[in-house]
């Protein structure tokens, strides 16, 4: 069958996937963001060729890392209807890394790969939102493949977050493992841009068991990790509890923690491009979420239901 993707895009994908065998966790994070936020992805809106191309890339990264599907394959499609009556098929991508000392609880690590697509002829590339989160997700997968986790870990690239958390809601409606077995959802959404060099971890205020773990991570983190944005004390618009995919888990009573930056001038703008990412901060941010996810695996019994 003839490919529907430009040859130049396929060449970029193949070149990126030919990374050195000795590459460590997070070494490809910048490449992941650059590729996923390229114009060829057309903003990765659900149900579009750009979304399919992004999915192709993520799946190849899954395979290169050595991830295994849970069930018959990585892809878990779902359907939803937009306000205009259009029915769209989204696709979540789910892999599992088996733990060395499983106790019936699992970590579910998530990041959405969709963005808002093309508007008025302009491509919204979504480098920070959320190619950066997917890069963090892949870095965590690399870390756990290099040094296996204690618990089973699900690596989940979610579709259709923009406009309703559709992929996350589909996941929790038909989870590949029982919801009761999910000890913690760790969600990444926007990891790469903050003028003050700050990354936030939300979730400790409503879930106090998270705080000592996050405090320990903050002391060792290569980025300034702050806790907050998880209550209405500073205004509902600053409470992130339901503002990304972890919200779907929270609604089901699943413990959650969310890593992200505060809004910035490029948020949901056509200027959210790879070139505007401060690379040292992003690299430190990715290293921080890898460190944090490892800590949650090691101390999952303290936070799981």
From TrEMBL:
One of its GO terms (biological process) is proteolysis. The keyword Signal applies. Transmembrane segments: none annotated. Pfam families: Peptidase_M28. Residues 1-23 form the signal peptide. GO terms for molecular function: metalloexopeptidase activity. Keywords: Signal. Residues 92-289 form the Peptidase M28 domain. InterPro entries: M28_fam, Peptidase_M28. This is Peptidase M20.
């Amino acid at each position: 069958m003839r490919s529907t993707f430009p040859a130049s895009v396929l060449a970029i994908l193949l070149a990126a996937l030919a990374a050195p065998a000795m590459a460590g966790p997070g070494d490809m994070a910048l490449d992941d963001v650059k590729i996923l936020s390229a114009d060829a992805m057309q903003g990765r809106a659900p149900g579009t060729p750009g979304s399919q191309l992004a999915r192709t890339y993520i799946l190849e990264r899954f395979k290169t890392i050595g991830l295994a599907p849970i069930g018959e394959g990585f892809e878990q499609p779902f359907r939803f209807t937009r306000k205009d009556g259009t029915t769209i098929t989204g696709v979540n991508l789910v892999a599992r890394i088996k733990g060395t000392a499983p106790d019936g609880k699992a970590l579910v690590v998530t990041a959405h790969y969709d963005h808002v697509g093309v508007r008025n002829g302009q491509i919204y590339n979504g480098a920070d939102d959320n190619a950066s989160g997917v890069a963090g997700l892949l870095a965590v997968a690399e870390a756990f493949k290099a040094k296996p986790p204690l618990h089973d870990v699900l690596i989940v690239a979610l579709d259709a977050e923009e406009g309703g958390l559709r992929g996350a809601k589909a996941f929790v409606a038909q989870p590949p493992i029982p919801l009761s077995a999910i000890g913690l959802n760790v969600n990444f959404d926007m990891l790469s841009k903050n003028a003050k060099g700050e990354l936030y971890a939300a979730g400790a205020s409503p879930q106090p068991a998270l705080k000592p773990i996050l405090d320990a991570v903050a002391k060792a983190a290569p980025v300034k990790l702050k806790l907050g944005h998880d209550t209405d004390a500073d205004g509902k618009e600053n409470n992130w509890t339901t503002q990304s995919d972890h919200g779907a888990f929270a609604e089901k009573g699943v413990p959650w923690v969310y890593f992200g930056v505060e809004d910035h001038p490029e948020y949901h703008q056509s200027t959210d491009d790879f070139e505007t990412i401060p690379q040292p901060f992003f690299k430190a941010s990715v290293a921080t979420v890898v460190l944090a996810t490892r800590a949650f695996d090691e101390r999952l019994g303290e936070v799981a239901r």
